[in-house]
Amino acid sequence: MTIYLVNLALLVMWAMLLMRSDASYKRGWFVTFATIQWIVLSGFRHITVGDDTAQYKALFLGTEGLPVSALTNDFFKIVFTESEDPGYYLFQRLVQFVITDYQVYLVLIALIFMIPLGYFIYKYSTEPLISFLLFSVLFYEFFAVTGLRQTVATALVVLIGYHFIRAKRIVAFLAILFVAMTIHKSALIFLPFYFLADKKLTKPYILGMLGVIAALFAFRGPFFNLLVSLSGYDTYSALDGAGAINFSVMLMTVLLVALWRRDEILQNNPQAIHYFNALFLAACFLPLTFINPSMMRLVQYFTLFLLLMIPEIIKTFERRERVVVYYAAVTLLLLLFLQDAPVYTFFWQ
Questions:
Q1: How many CB atoms lie within 10 A of CB 222?
Q2: 346 - beta bridge partners?
Q3: Is the distance from CB of 144 to CB of 42 less than 8 angstroms?
Q4: What is the SS3 assignment for 309?
Q5: SS3 346
Q6: Most buried among 66, 192, 199, 288, using CB within 10 Å?
Q7: Helix (H, G, I), strand (E, B), or coil: what is residue 45?
Q8: Contact yes or no for 60/102 (Cβ under 8 A)
Q9: Which of 213, 171, 214 is nearest to 194 (CA)?
Q10: Could you give the CA distance from residue 342 to residue 110 in angstroms, rounded to a whole number?
Q11: Which segments of 243-318 does DSSP mark as H helices, in order?
Q12: Could you give the dihedral angle defined by the CA atoms of residues 237, 193, 146 and 227, in that order, rounded to the nearest 10 degrees?
């Protein structure tokens, strides 16, 4: 736990030193330092840190020495007809021509995800400290210390693909979506966002989406059966006691508060319409987590926009109130982390 606390303390310290002015270069330095910290934590972790780190090492060792042709035969057939993710194994094998050490490979994966994440926050977040604290408390376990395939897929389709969505470059977006889908089929779930990102928040639309979310929760069983094959998790079944209750309450609370203050948010940042629609989609897939917790993999593609939405909510408060809300948010995130802080060790320990 200690190293995670040091990470959080350093984030706050860099913000105090560099974020007191609006100078873009200081904002850039803060994001750079924060990104480097997470590259170190993610890439230098011990094999026991993260549920899948050891498993992915076995996969890494298993592809060593394989001819590339063994991974390209029937590539497209496998992508479209089977539940395998041939793109990841091909990517891994090509990397092994340069990198043969698994620890160095973990550093590479950290670079692939954390650099786009840092730019995502630098470019679009109004409060980079809040965004990095949110990542450090809510998302690091999923993207920084486990799930290498989806980590790479998310970096491609969300953190890079979102720039193409904003620029309305559909060909580029579909191309990167396809690459991500070969690495982890669940990336396909991000496709609807391209077409819904700019949907206006009319009252009929808001009420309709809230109704859809309620209906999907009520009929989550059939919804689960419909989507598992598309997500690449056709081997997963319903589990008793499933359900990310705390996260669900948090997500729905943020969405409802954002809707309450939507006029102020959109006045400050018209492009924040994207964040609303991303969270609507996240909420639509949230009922699946009450069938099988692995379905959180689908929700996570959209919930990264919490890193942008929560700062937008804070910005809607008056200047005096904003200071209180800002420090309250920082304190709450630190307390949430302390409540369930995991163990961390570096690879040399």
A1: 9
A2: 45
A3: yes
A4: helix
A5: strand
A6: 288
A7: strand
A8: yes
A9: 171
A10: 19
A11: 245-260, 262-268, 273-285, 296-303, 306-315
A12: 10
Q: Where are the alpha helices (DSSP H) in 19-160?
A: 24-43, 53-63, 68-72, 75-81, 86-95, 102-124, 128-134, 140-143, 148-154
pTM of the model: 0.91
User: Which residue do the tokens 């943020």 mark?
Assistant: 254
Question: By the 8 A CB rule, do 274 and 302 touch?
Answer: no
Q: How far apart are CA 180 and CA 197, in angstroms?
A: 19
- As a whole number of angstroms, the distance between CA 248 and CA 287 comes to 9
Which tokens belong to 315? 């910005």
Cβ atoms within 10 Å, residue 293: 15
Q: What's the first-to-final CA gap in the chain, in angstroms? A: 14
* 329-332, long-range: CB < 8 A, 24+ apart: 329/130, 329/133, 330/12, 330/129, 330/130, 330/133
CA distance 70 to 79: 15
116 three-class SS = helix
DSSP state at residue 82: S
Residue 206 has a CB neighbour count (10 Å cut-off) of 15
Confidence of residue 343 (pLDDT cuts 50, 70, 90): confident
Are 95 and 112 within 8 A, CB to CB?
no
1 CB-side CA count, 13 A = 7
DSSP letter for each residue of 251-264: HHHHHHHHHHTHHH
Kindly report the length of the chain: 349
Give me the amino acid identity at 328: A
Which structure tokens are listed for 165?
């969505």
Alpha-carbon distance 127 to 280, whole Å?
Answer: 22
Q: Please check whether residue 212 is in contact with residue 284, taking contact to mean a CB–CB distance below 8 angstroms.
A: yes
Q: pLDDT grade, residue 297 (50/70/90)?
A: confident
Q: Which of 125, 129, 32 is nearest to 326 (CA)?
A: 129
Distance CA 293, CA 291 (A): 7
Could you give the count of Cα atoms lying within 13 Å of 121 in the half-sphere of its Cβ? 28
Cα separation, 277 vs 2, in Å, equals 37
